[in-house]
Design goal:
This protein is α/β, with parallel strands linked by helices. Helix content is 55%, strand content 11%. The chain is globular and about 75 Å long. It binds NADP nicotinamide-adenine-dinucleotide phosphate.
């Protein structure tokens, strides 16, 4: 009797095992084929959104360095005029000259410090007034000086507000400014820079990770609210890119240059509304953030970040001795 019962249940378990294996293989294959379509074929198959059709101007925040500069350059290459918004006037003027000489488009610059809170947006509104803005890249971002627990930082109040203003308030307020025009014209693309650190809560970077999760959720909500009005809102969640913020100078397959990253990410507009932007980051995202158990992720992050912090503090100490 027992044998008969076990016999039939073994068949059921085999069936469940086969069904699970088939489901996982299907999921893997679908992800793999989607990746090939998104990162290698989208542009040539004409699947990517033609951003030039959205309007004659694009606005890029944090446009004088790294990823933002690459977005501004590559958008201008497509014949779209650009408004560059960043802190330093001299950097803005240099990047504007570079873009104007290469791409023969109009470039407007606005120098503002996004850490200053909502007072700055009246001026930004005036500067953007009357422009046919088809693309907004909410790129400006601020990271931690080094990883750490909240109470490890002197001046944590100022640091928290700066992180919130630069990473969250800027995205929200810039969208408020630009969205009405896009909705009126029934077209537009808003690209919001989140981060892989938003894919799982990342300890030792808590405010940054949470701010980037805001960017990711906000993008998904606004996309859903306005897709029927012709507005695409994309959340981009990069891994490491070789920029000032990451502090990584040497590029590699895993750490692309801003130009390589943005070339790949721009082709995903209209194909993926939530994207890692670059195929290696997509693979890493799936492995680290979807497959790895949270307890293992947390313990690895805590120990790696503690090492980074100790290294940073050692360097700082050595520097203060030599000064
Ligand atoms: N690099 C990475 O590995 C990585 C990974 C994931 C996500 N991201 C995200 O990608 C975005 C771009 O990062 P990035 O690495 O390209 O940064 P970056 O190289 O440090 O460039 C930052 C840009 O923002 C401007 N900026 C900084 N603080 C500002 C402020 N308070 N007000 C106005 N402008 C300000 C800077 O210009 P000024 O100095 O002239 O102000 C510069 O143009 C960020 O949102 C970041 O969180 C980056």
């Amino acid at each position: 009797m027992m044998r008969a019962f076990l016999g039939s249940s073994t068949d059921v378990f085999t069936l469940i095992g086969v069904a699970c294996a088939a489901y996982l293989s299907f999921k893997f294959l679908r992800g793999y084929l989607n990746g090939i379509k998104t990162y290698f074929l989208a542009r040539s198959l004409g699947l990517s959104t033609n951003i030039k059709r959205m309007g004659s101007w694009a606005v890029v925040t944090g446009a004088t360095d790294g990823i933002g500069k690459a977005y501004a350059e590559q958008i201008a290459e497509q014949g779209i005029n650009v408004v560059l918004i960043s802190r330093s006037l001299d950097k803005l003027q240099n990047v504007a000259k570079e873009i104007e000489s290469k791409s023969k488009v109009k470039v407007k610059t606005v120098a503002v410090d996004f850490s200053q809170g909502i007072e700055i947006y009246a001026r930004v509104r005036t500067e953007l007034d009357g422009l046919d803005i088809g693309v907004l890249v909410n790129n400006v971002g601020m990271g931690y000086p080094c990883p750490g627990r909240i109470l490890d930082f002197d001046h944590i109040e100022k640091m928290s507000m700066d992180l919130i203003n630069v990473n969250i308030t800027s995205m929200t307020m810039m969208t408020n400014l630009v969205l009405p025009g896009m909705v009126n014209r029934k077209k537009g693309v808003i690209i919001n820079l989140s981060s892989m650190s938003a894919m799982k809560p990342t300890p030792m970077l808590s405010i940054y990770s949470a701010a980037k999760a805001y960017a990711d959720f906000y993008s998904a909500c606004v996309h859903e609210e306005y897709k029927s009005k012709g507005v695409i809102v994309q959340s981009v969640l990069p891994g490491f890119v070789a920029t000032n913020m990451s502090g990584i100078k040497k590029t590699s397959l895993q750490v692309p240059s801003p130009t390589t990253f943005v070339r790949s990410a721009l082709a995903t507009v209209g194909v993926q509304n939530r994207t890692n932007g670059y195929w290696v980051h997509d693979l890493l995202g799936k492995l680290i953030y979807e497959v790895m158990p949270t307890w293992l992720f947390n313990s690895m992050v805590m120990s790696t970040m503690a090492k980074h912090r100790a290294k940073f503090l050692r360097k700082q100490q050595q520097q203060s001795k030599t000064d």
